Amino acid sequence: MSDYLQMVKEVIADVMKVDIDTITPETNFIEDLKADSMDQFFLVDGFCEKFDVTISDDDARDIRTVQDILDYIEKRV
């Protein structure tokens, strides 16, 4: 498992209060984790803080799965 995946999973588990072991790259924030708009805001905020990146509103709308955020981070970190 990549370090980025582990770090992303930690943010998700903290924000969504889910078991870290249930999170996979295919996990969908809305469909699988039932993230509402506030959850999504806190997830993006957590990713920005954890990885020292800025995620625009337009980019945030395209981030639907764990793999999406991993791809985004790997291109920018």
TrEMBL record:
Give any GO molecular function from the UniProt entry: acyl binding
UniProt subcellular location: Cytoplasm
What domain of life does the native source organism fall in? Bacteria
- Stored InterPro entries: ACP, ACP-like_sf, PP-bd_ACP
Function, as annotated, reads: Carrier of the growing fatty acid chain in fatty acid biosynthesis.
Instruction: Supply one GO BP term.
Output: lipid A biosynthetic process
Give the Carrier domain ranges. 2-77
HAMAP family attached here? Answer: Acyl_carrier
The family database entries (Pfam families) matched by this protein are listed as: PP-binding
Q: Which residues form a coiled coil?
A: none
| Record-level GO cellular component terms | cytosol; membrane
Residues that bear O-(pantetheine 4'-phosphoryl)serine: S37
The scientific name of the source species is: Candidatus Brevifilum fermentans
The record's comment on protein family reads: Belongs to the acyl carrier protein (ACP) family.
Q: What is this protein called?
A: Acyl carrier protein
The root-end lineage is: Bacteria, Bacillati, Chloroflexota, Anaerolineae, Anaerolineales
The pathway it acts in is: Lipid metabolism; fatty acid biosynthesis
Describe how it is modified after translation.
4'-phosphopantetheine is transferred from CoA to a specific serine of apo-ACP by AcpS. This modification is essential for activity because fatty acids are bound in thioester linkage to the sulfhydryl of the prosthetic group.
UniProtKB keywords: Cytoplasm, Fatty acid biosynthesis, Fatty acid metabolism, Lipid biosynthesis, Lipid metabolism, Phosphopantetheine, Phosphoprotein
Main localization category: cytoplasm
